[in-house]
Amino acid sequence: MTILYPVAANAQAALASPLGRAAREREARGVAGEAVAFVTEEVGALYATREAALDAYRGRLDDERTASKVQVAPEDRYLSLRAVVEGPAPAPPLQPSFAEGRRWPKPPAAPRSGFRLLVSYWRIGKAPAQAPKDQARTARRRQGAAPLSADEVRALARQPLRPVRPQQPLDIGLFEAPAPEAPHILIPDD
Predict the structure, then answer these.
(1) Given the DSSP bridges, would you call strands 112-124 and 5-8 parallel, antiparallel or unpaired?
(2) What is the mean pLDDT of the chain?
(3) Is residue 188, in this structure, part of any structural domain at all?
(4) Is 167 part of a structural domain of the chain?
């Protein structure tokens, strides 16, 4: 069974009242009547614990707790939970202050963390920002490169890493030799 993702203009509409549901882009375009893009977005409040988030979305997420076991149908698995940290960037390392009889200053407040609902759906309209074709290290260092927008940086962070150049063949060790009948196999030569 395939997952049927909602077709909607935004994540809130995908949760509440989607135009329809589709597994593939072609089907989603037919439902929407215009271009669509597959996106995954956070929606809703930040819950302090996973249990609180599961209670808030009871029946819409798989729940393996013994008190409230729920298993969602395969076609309805477009929702998931993600652990998130909200707040300012981490502070730089603290330096000893030796002030007021204390060696270390008070640490900054810890950022809020919790769980937020993720919705995967077909968004109606133009596609989200695409990552540049180059990898981040190349895109930033290229001569005359324009600064990247926040959406482009997020897209770069989500794309898989690619090798800079093809991997070189492995070296044959001092005590290894290729097998005569199968040169792609190395045999220990002790």
Answers:
(1) parallel
(2) 84
(3) no
(4) no
On whether residue 82 sits in a domain, the answer given is yes
Residue 81 CB partners (closer than 8 Å, separation 6+):
50, 53, 54, 61, 115, 116, 117, 118
Cα separation, 137 vs 140, whole angstroms: 6
Q: Tally the domains of the chain.
A: 1
Q: What distance in Å separates the CA atoms of residue 121 and residue 50, rounded to the nearest whole number?
A: 22
Q: What's the domain range around 82?
A: 1-87+112-143
Helix (H) / strand (E) element for 24: namely: none
Position 66 in a domain = yes
Label each residue of 60-120 as H, E or C.
CCCECCCCCCECCCHHHCCEEEEEEEECCCCCCCCCCCCECCECCCCCCCCCEEEEEEEEE
**Is 162:168 a contact under the CB 8 Å cutoff?**
no
Question: pTM of the entire structure?
Answer: 0.62
Give percent above pLDDT 70 in the chain.
91
Q: What is the pLDDT of residue 111?
A: 81
| Residue 147 clears pLDDT 90, i.e. is over it | no
Q: Residue 28's pLDDT is what? A: 93
Can you read off the two tokens belonging to residue 22?
Answer: 């589709």
